[in-house]
Amino acid sequence: MAHEKVWANNENLNKFELKKLEKDGLDILEEIDTFAKNGFASIPEEDWDLLKWAGLYLQRPKKDGYFMMRIKVPTGILNYEQVVALAGICRDFGRDLFDITTRQAIQFHWLEIENIPEIFRRLDEVGLTTVGACGDIARNVIGNPLAGIDPEELLDTEPIVREIHQFFHKNRDFSNLPRKYKISISASYYNSGHAEINDLAFIPATKEIDGKLVKGFHVKVGGGLSSKPHLAQPLNIFVTPDKVKDVAIAVTTIFRDYGYREKRHRARLKFLVADWGVEKFQEKLLELTGPLPERGNDETKGWNAGYFYGVHPQKQKGLNYIGFNVPLGRLYSEEVLEIARISKKYGNGQIRTCNTQNIVIPNVPDDQVEALLAEEIFQKGRITIKPKSFIGYAVSCTGTEFCNLALVETKQRMKTIVEYLDQELELDVPVRMHITGCPNSCGQRQIADIGLQGVLMRTKDKKMVDAYEIHVGGTLLDGGRFNEKLKGKIEAEKLHLVLKDFLQYFKETKLAGETFLEY
Ligand code: SF4
């Protein structure tokens, strides 16, 4: 009940809000051991949704009692011990599936409640957590996967991301937000943190203060996808690294106290920002933080869309980071263990996850690069630094394989499509294709060159079948633009053929080197 009185919008609370007042999401953590001892049937159905605070979702179909688990990976950085522990968990309890999400997190499937305490113990041992990876709370803090090693970043954001992650971890002042809440902190000049689709984003900026050029951040608020997507809007403030936490607390406080709690589909921060406007939002923010300097120079130069394929020099002389494609973000435990072994042998044992569901192995000395690339796992063609045009730029959400909200299949569908396109077509530029199984858009289809949105369609003989809408022209360049829907929807079975014709036309009519966005 801690914040019931201070919420400005606490009239007509929706059913789930009333539930959250009865029991805080974090309370569920205390009950996991008992649930594990007594089995799935002992978990009251009314508590199923609160398990999200522990990073646990019931996978489809709910009654079977299998869980999806999401593990936070702040700014995508994992050390060797963490990667090995994660591989062990998916091998021992999760039918071997290791999925990288579009927010740099890791997801497991097929987990049973009996094993959750042991999984938590293993995660805890290596400093990982699932707490707050799902639920109405601050989610995994994303950022530049190259933080600290990137020659194209203004400053190293890893310590700041860790500070914010730690601050919100099990923090009961902020464990009951109106809805999920996503933070991005990146100082990459190329918007690696996908700033505009987050509730709160810090992006690189400089400002002359007292005759000195100071490095820091500009701030954007109110972004998010789903069926009513919004691009985050810039505030007129400049934030030094030591003030990031204050600003994050202030924005989260506004969301907690003024965010909408009446209808869940209107509860994200983006609706409050849109209704208030950024001026009013900023005024409220400054009331909480005290005065902050006005904007300085924006240091964002472009958008790399979160791709890092190939071998690249780090800011540390003589060291390299190597970006690999992981087809649709899915690995298997043996692969994960092998990549961990390699990252330790040639690098410093770290693996970094990207918003594009891919990985980076950092800290590889110049004279080790060749040997690393010659390792058998990278010769097989599946995990590669030079993926084919379509599989290399395909992003997918979970879809009906495991997700209760899904309308259609996604990962397998996308795999079939891109394999077909890679066989049939070769392009001189990548085309980023994202697929998403319902309007929630975990596959971030709005920012893709070609976004495929799953829907159901009635055929002539009155059967319901999987179908997809096609949206084109999304980007986060220059503040961002969501893609636009083409007319109609395409039956799943014909989708690969339609896309082939469409892309063939693009290939034949575009100029050499012209990208989908420029077309
Ligand atoms: Fe599930 Fe929909 Fe998210 Fe896909 S977009 S993972 S179908 S909720």
| Alpha carbon gap, first and last residue | 54 Å
Alpha-beta content class: alpha+beta
Question: Residue share in helices?
Answer: 25-40%
How is the quaternary structure best described?
Answer: single chain
Report strand %.
15-25%
Q: Characterize the overall form.
A: globular
Computed over alpha carbons, the radius of gyration is 22 Å
List the total number of helices: 13
* Overall mean confidence score, pLDDT: 96
User: Bound compounds, please?
Assistant: iron/sulfur cluster
Q: What does the main sheet amount to?
A: 6 strands, mixed
Low-confidence stretches: none
Please give the number of β-strands. 22
Domain Nitrite/Sulfite reductase ferredoxin-like: 61-126, 312-375
Keywords: 4Fe-4S, Heme, Iron, Iron-sulfur, Metal-binding, Oxidoreductase
Family: Belongs to the nitrite and sulfite reductase 4Fe-4S domain family.
Protein name: Ferredoxin--nitrite reductase
